[in-house]
Each structure stands twice: as structure tokens, then as C-alpha cells.
Amino acid sequence: MSETTSTNEENKLPLNGRRAIPPNYSNDEENEVPEMEAFGVIPRGFNPRDYLRVVDIYMFKEPQEINKQEHHTDKYYNPKLIVRRGQAFQIQIDFNRPYQPQSDQFWLEFLMGRYPQQNKGTYIPIPVGGALKPGQWGAKVIHRENNSIRLSIMSSATCIIGKFRLYVAVLTPYGILRTRRNSATDTYILFNPWCQLDAVYLDDEKEREEYVLNDVGIVFHGNAEDIKSRSWSYGQFEENVLDACLFLMDKAELELSGRGNPIKICRVASAVINSRDDDGVIAGSWNNSYDYGVAPSAWTGSVDILLEYYSSKQPVRYGQCWVFAGVFNTFLRCLGIPARLITNYSSAHDNNANLRMDFFLDDDGKVDTRLTKDSVWNYHCWNEAWMTRPDLPVGFGGWQVVDGTPQETSDGMYRCGPASVQAIKHGHVCFQFDAPFVYAEVNSDIFYTRMEKNGTQVVENIDTSRIGQLIVTKEVGGDGMMDITEEYKFREGSDEERLALETAVMYGVKKQSIQDTTYQPQTDVDMDFQAQKAVLGNDFKVTITFRNKSRNSYTATTYFSGNIVFYTGVPKSEFKKHSFSAKLEPSSSSSFDILIKSSEYMRDLLEQASFHFFVTARINETGKILAVQKAVMLEIPTLRIKTKGELVAGKEMSVIVEFTNPLKQTLENVTLRLEGPGMLRTIKKQFGRIPMNSTLTWEVKFTPMRAGLRKLIASLNSDALRHVYGELNVQIQKP
């Protein structure tokens, strides 16, 4: 076959002096392939039926058959053959007569896109020969019987991933006879973490099961002192999700020839997951109003979002960081790139990567919201993808940070990564992509700075340990939490940490040294702040404790400010102000309680029910300022889920979701969602209102099709209350 097939349509290509053929970035488009490609004039007596002819091709593509079993693709709800690159798979060809290797010559052709070219990896002719070489294209006959042969086909461990069209070509003296276009033989080729030659090879079977094959995960949220978790359905095997993920690469206009490279795929995907600058998958909204869309907290998984985008081609509204990360994780696992969702507690959103978050205080020591522009996110979610980094020096492969949440532009687009976790830990932030930004997210310091009347800045306090204080992901093989802070940074205060920081500064991360600023803190008095466990709708108490380690008596003028904040740390409103004078006796501790009433905060509460408390105290005798800030999350009630009836594959069962309204008000516009990955597609139900203290009950009947351990995930959303979740593990028995 010539490299670009000549048809009438090809001759009418638009004239373009820049390139011979138009860009090739659609996996869906096709070219016409002739069934008879003549070498010249065909003699009159020629009859194609006289030659070897393909009658049928059998792909062994059922979930229980050899290909999907050996390639770990049996979970995909997709009728076509799905295999992983660099590993052999089998097909059977039935001819019109027995195959005679001495005289018959045939080969296979895999094609992708509208302009297949051999040097671009989009046209792959595979001759049938002897032994297969690992990780290289090849085919050999492993069984012959009557008119049939069975072939073992090896794909290249670096081939592009996506959907290929398959043709069988037979050589005759007068031309090449080809099989007719048959979509039933289309073959998806994915990344292969089981293959040592693949760039995404992962050597631990338990980790492969978790990071590639697990279709449910956990999102950790809340804050470091009060960690909350919820399940998220990745659903990478659900119907049409694979096609939706391939469409994302078309949408991002990634050339087909670049699709074998996980670095390129991650980079373009981190841009196309968000809708900024390219009408990507999810539109972000952080302002608590979600008109004409779904509140970010209401989603229970990625499938609805990806399928809605695949059909409408319009950004899906709305997402926040864990939604971008959840969908990105689905995309990566679906294509076969090992991936996990990460939460960084107290994440610095630093606009100029200077490792310094400035909180400005006024003369009294209160935080000046007008001047303070930096924000500390209670938590921020991103992803890690596993791959080699041949573009970097040795040692920087492994987990790479990729982030689909639009925060800063990188090379002109809202995207982030892949950045090597190892490079971030050691301060080698010169290595692409976006390492300085991620380094600042986990390593910044908080400066409390007072503005003098004449404009000079006095640093009153520096908090070096709050940012990036805890970095976590779901544990392998369970629902617990795994602390991976040590993978991102050395222990606070260690020599290695100082060396990593000096390295990062050498490579251009801006860090103002403390010597540049006039900073003499008050060292003989400590101030601490604790909050009682707070339940939504109830009063709770906070306690400020001073410890005077000196032999002097001090008085401290103390300001307490309670703010309702978005989880990004941006304040919406101050709901509590309190100031008092504290007498600090020598060598002793003293505590002061402040009561927070539900009537003070309920009216303005935002969906993640999160508060930010600032306490600043001026020691009157020395003029020095102590400062502490803390995020507090309210305990939000959960949904109760139970099942009724037998839990057997193929039999109808019932799920009952219950919720009792704990607030002293009626909940309006209530929506419930329920989904069970691999068992139940998302179901939504609207309820008008739930009066205070009353209980809502919703029963859903459905028939699970597959046996095994499954998870049901539910969410409730309303005008006054969001982030209400429930989940239940269910074991579906075999019939």
C-alpha cells in the first residue's frame, strides 16, 4: 500500500504551502482504503476469487477470552478488542482454502486517522514471519487447521495508543487484495504497565491493581487537623468512557504521532481537563453560585462528566480541584497510565513562586484583608502519573505531578506538569514542567507583616511549618490514608531540607532570606489555639492558650477574628470579632474560651462549612506581635445507605438512602445522586424540601450484572447544605 492512499478526495486536498498533508489529530476520521490495489493494467481473465481470500477474522475479544484476560482489559464495557502495547495477542483468520506458506503471501495492516503514514506510526504493515521480538511489531502463525490459521501478534512497546483499523492484505500477481472495512475488527491499543519495555512500566502487581485497575478511589479533604474523606467513582471501564478519553486528545489537538508518549499526553490533558482557554472538559467555579450547572460537591464520580462532554462538546459545569483531579485520574487509568489522586493540606497558592505568603497586619495587629492577596487553600488535590522521564537526567522518573485545576498559565495555557516528585523533593526545580510552582505549593512560608505608616514593612512573625504540612493519597488495596509527605520534602529543619531549599533558590525559586527583613520575634511567650469538635448547626467553643516562659509579667491585647471562607482560604465574610486583654503571669499558662454560636455563622455559611480563625496578640510591654491562624471544618451529617433483598448478580435488589435534616431550617431544592461503579449508572432524584428534623427516604431498585465487591456512593445537594455524602461496600454474590 502506498503511504498515502490516492483517492479522488485526496487529490482535492486544500492547497497549503506549509505542509503536504493537513495536521493529523483525529483518531475518529478515516481514509478510504481500496479493496483492490492494482499494480498496472489488470488482464481480462483476472478473477480475485482464484486467489487466497479472507472469509472471516475472529478477534477473541470477549471479556472471558484469552486477549482481554491476558491484557487485563476484561473489565472494559466495550465490545471491541482492547490490548496493551508490547505484549502479544491472538487473532484467527479463516480463508477460502487452506493457507500454503510457500506460495501464499499476506500481511496485516493497522491504520489510524485520516492520513496514515508509516514513519508517523499511523500506518503499520506487519508481515507474517518467524519468531516474535519483544516490544517490536511482528506476527507469526501459531496454529493451522483446515482453512484457518491462528496468529500471535506483537505490538511495539512504544507504539501510539488509540483505536486502530485492521485490514488483511493478500498479494496476487496483479495487485493487492484487501479485506473490506469492518469496524468489528477495530483494535484499541493502550499503555502497558505490565510490560518492562513500556515507559509506564510499574513493577509491583498490587500497585498495578490499585493505580490502573481500581475504578473507585478516595478523595481526602477537610484540613490536616480534621481529615475528611469521600469516595469517588473513576469508572474508567464504563461504556463509552474509553472513546471519551481518546476524544480528549483529539480536542487537545495532540498529533496522532505523539500519542505514544505519556509525557506529552499528560501535558496536553492537564490543559484540556479544564475549560480555560480551550473549552475543555470542566468549567471551574469557586463563588458558591452554580446556576445552570451542577454544584462541584454534588458529583459522585467522573463518568457523567466525561460522557456529557463527549456528547455535547461543551464544558461541563461546575468543578473544583477534586473534580478536576478525579476526572484526570479516570483519563490516565483508562489509557493505562498508573495514576493516583493526591491531597496537599495547607496548599500555597502563590502568585509569583517566591515561597512567601504575605499576611498583612494593621497597627493593632489585626489582619488587613485589603492588602492581603495570597491565600492558603485548606487542601488542594492534584494527580500523580507514573512514567519514565527520558527527557530528564537519570533518577527523575517515577511519580510525576500533573494538575488539571486552572491556577496559573504554563507556556501560555492553564496547565501544570508533569513535574518530577523526586526533583521537587531535592529542589531541582530547573527540570520541566512547572516544578517551581509545585515546589512553592508545598514549601512556602507564611509571613505576618505589619505596614508602618511610612510604608516600611516589619515582619512580626514567620510560620515555616504550616504550608504543605501533610500530603496524602489512598493506600494501596484499602480505603485508608497513606502519608506521602516524605516523598515531596525532607523533614522540617533537617540538613537535607536546607540543602534542597538552597538548590531550589539556586535554580531560580525566589526566596527572601530572613536577614533581609527586620525580624525579632517574641520568643518567651507561646500562643496556641484549639477548637472543640464543631457540628453543623450547633454552638462550639474555641480556646486560646498563652504560655509565658519568662520571669516577667506581661499583658497581651488579643484580637480574635472568625471568618467564613471558601476552601481556597479566600474569606467571604467576618462573622465574629472579639478582643480582650490577657494577663500573663510569669512561668505559667492561661487559657481563654470564646463561644461561637450557630446563629452567628449559619446565615453566611458556604458549602464546605469551613472557618478560618485569626488570632493576633500584641505584648504591650515589648510591642511584639504573636500570630496564629487555623482552619476549622464543621462536622456535616452523612447519608445512611442500606440494602434490601438478596445481593446476587442478575437478581433485582433495593438500595435505601436516608437523610435527617439537622438544621434549624427547611432545606430547599434538594437533589440526591446515587451511583455504583460497575453496578449502577448514576441516578438523580429531586426533592422539593426537607423540613427541619424530618427524614427523607429514597428507595432505588436495580439489578447488578456482575459479582464481586462493589461500592455504592451517594451525595445530597441543596441550597443551604452541600458536601453531604454516604457510601456502602456491597458484596454481590455469584448466582
From TrEMBL:
Q: Which InterPro entries has this protein been placed in?
A: Ig-like_fold, Ig_E-set, Papain-like_cys_pep_sf, Transglutaminase, Transglutaminase-like, Transglutaminase-like_sf, Transglutaminase_animal, Transglutaminase_AS
Question: What is the name of the protein in this document?
Answer: Coagulation factor XIII A chain
> What is the gene name?
F13a1
The cellular location(s) given in this protein's UniProt record come to: Cytoplasm; Secreted
Q: Where does Ca(2+) bind?
A: 443, 445, 492, 497
User: In its keyword annotation, does this UniProt entry include Transport?
Assistant: no
Q: What does this protein do?
A: Factor XIII is activated by thrombin and calcium ion to a transglutaminase that catalyzes the formation of gamma-glutamyl-epsilon-lysine cross-links between fibrin chains, thus stabilizing the fibrin clot. Also cross-link alpha-2-plasmin inhibitor, or fibronectin, to the alpha chains of fibrin.
> What family does the Swiss-Prot or TrEMBL record give for this protein?
Belongs to the transglutaminase superfamily. Transglutaminase family.
Protein keywords: Acetylation, Acyltransferase, Blood coagulation, Calcium, Cytoplasm, Hemostasis, Metal-binding, Secreted, Transferase, Zymogen
The keyword Glycoprotein belongs to this UniProt entry's keyword annotation: no
| Reaction catalysis annotation | L-glutaminyl-[protein] + L-lysyl-[protein] = [protein]-L-lysyl-N(6)-5-L-glutamyl-[protein] + NH4(+)
Query: Would you name any one GO CC term?
Result: cytoplasm
Coarsely, its chief localization is cytoplasm
What Enzyme Commission number(s) apply to this enzyme? Answer: 2.3.2.13
**Gene Ontology process terms (BP):** blood coagulation, fibrin clot formation
Q: What class of enzyme is it?
A: transferase
Region described as Disordered: 1-26
**CC cofactor:** Ca(2+)
The Transglutaminase-like domain is annotated at 313-406
Task: Provide the GO MF annotations for this entry.
Answer: metal ion binding; protein-glutamine gamma-glutamyltransferase activity
User: What does the note accompanying the cofactor annotation read?
Assistant: Binds 1 Ca(2+) ion per subunit.
Please list the residues that make up the active site: 321, 380, 403
| Subunit note | Tetramer of two A chains (F13A1) and two B (F13B) chains.
